[in-house]
Automatic annotation (TrEMBL), chain A:
This is Putative prefoldin subunit 5-like Protein. Belongs to the prefoldin subunit alpha family. SUPFAM superfamilies: Prefoldin. The keyword Chaperone applies. GO terms for biological process: protein folding; RNA polymerase I assembly; RNA polymerase II core complex assembly; RNA polymerase III assembly. Keywords: Chaperone, Coiled coil. The keyword Coiled coil applies. InterPro entries: PFD_alpha_archaea (IPR011599), Prefoldin (IPR009053), Prefoldin_subunit_alpha (IPR004127). GO terms for cellular component: cytoplasm; prefoldin complex.
Automatic annotation (TrEMBL), chain B:
The keyword Chaperone applies. PANTHER family: PREFOLDIN SUBUNIT 6 (PTHR21431:SF0). The gene is AUGUSTUS-3.0.2_00098. This is Probable prefoldin subunit 6. Keywords: Chaperone, Coiled coil. InterPro entries: PFD_beta-like, Prefoldin. GO terms for biological process: chaperone-mediated protein complex assembly; protein folding. GO terms for molecular function: protein-folding chaperone binding; unfolded protein binding. Residues 2-36 form a coiled coil. Pfam families: Prefoldin_2.
Length: 154, 126
């Protein structure tokens, strides 16, 4: 229990937490706290990305061949709209990143968002597992610090 | 003598702090490059799976410009090469800054040791 797993980085040594002094332990705890808050941040932004992809995927459900010619309001600014007509509703333009846009038909677009959501979800799961591991180590450190403090008092 | 030592410690401490700042800057550049490389990799994968006749546009300011798929693939590939080069350059920079930091840290420790000894001596004489 009192050992840090070294599966992620091969150049990391296994360290028995009991051999560290309180100073070292608190530094380690600080580091872990920082990492954990970074994980929380990443999870939040991944969650945001996931929602965006989900929303885009859902709005694709509303366009199809039968929406050709339908009227829409196109935003010119945040508060000004002009009427327009939908045209060529079988294809959509998708922002694939680094300022590139690709034209896809509805099914390919749906598939794109499905893949993206899956990708983001996988990343989130990975981070959650890592975070769980780190917080376990953090708890172990806190326990050992308390133990050492008790030993000092006796 | 003691004032001289203090001045030395101060200047050493300043340069130590400067290298720390440099290191921080290099590390954040490195992280930025890393995320750029990741994004480009994702775009490259996406471009690879597009059919040959797919229409691809590049946004330049407020307009979309039509580009050939082959060209887009080449551009992304080139950018990835450039970013990889930058990453190895920044990695070298980080190692050299870390070395510099170690030198300053050692010098600082030595000076502090000297300072403590001087204080002990002064206390004995007093």
């Amino acid at each position: 229990m009192a050992q840090i797993s070294s599966t992620e980085q091969p150049n990391m040594k296994q360290v028995d937490l009991m051999t560290l002094n309180i100073q070292q332990l608190s530094t380690l705890k600080q580091q872990l706290d920082q990492e954990l808050s970074l994980f929380q941040e990443s999870l939040a932004s991944l969650k945001m990305a996931q929602t965006k992809f989900q929303n885009s995927g859902e709005s694709l459900e509303k366009v199809g061949p039968d929406s050709d010619g339908k009227e829409i309001l196109v935003p010119l600014t945040g508060s000004m709209y002009v009427p327009g007509k939908l045209h060529e509703t079988n294809n959509v333009l998708i922002d694939i990143g680094t300022r590139y846009y690709a034209e896809k038909d509805i099914d390919a677009a749906k598939d794109y968002f499905k893949r993206k959501i899956q990708f983001v979800t996988e990343q989130m799961e990975k981070i959650q597992i890592l975070g769980l591991e780190k917080s376990k180590i953090r708890d172990a450190i806190v326990e050992i610090v308390e133990l050492k403090l008790q030993q000092q008092q006796n | 003598m003691s004032e001289d030592l203090q001045r030395k410690i101060q200047s050493e401490l300043d340069s130590f702090k400067n290298t720390q700042k440099e290191l921080q800057k290099a590390i954040s550049t490195r992280q930025q490059l890393d995320s750029q490389l990741n994004e480009n990799m994702i775009v490259k994968d996406e471009l690879e799976i597009l059919p040959k006749d797919a229409k691809v546009y590049k946004s330049v300011g407020p307009v979309l410009i039509k580009t050939e798929l082959v060209e887009a693939r080449q551009n992304v590939g080139k950018r990835m090469d450039y970013i990889k080069k930058e990453i190895s350059r920044v990695d070298d920079l980080i190692t050299s800054i870390e070395k510099k930091q170690d030198v300053h840290r050692e010098a600082l420790q030595k000076l502090q040791h000297q300072f403590q000894q001087a204080q002990v001596k002064a206390a004995l004489h007093a």
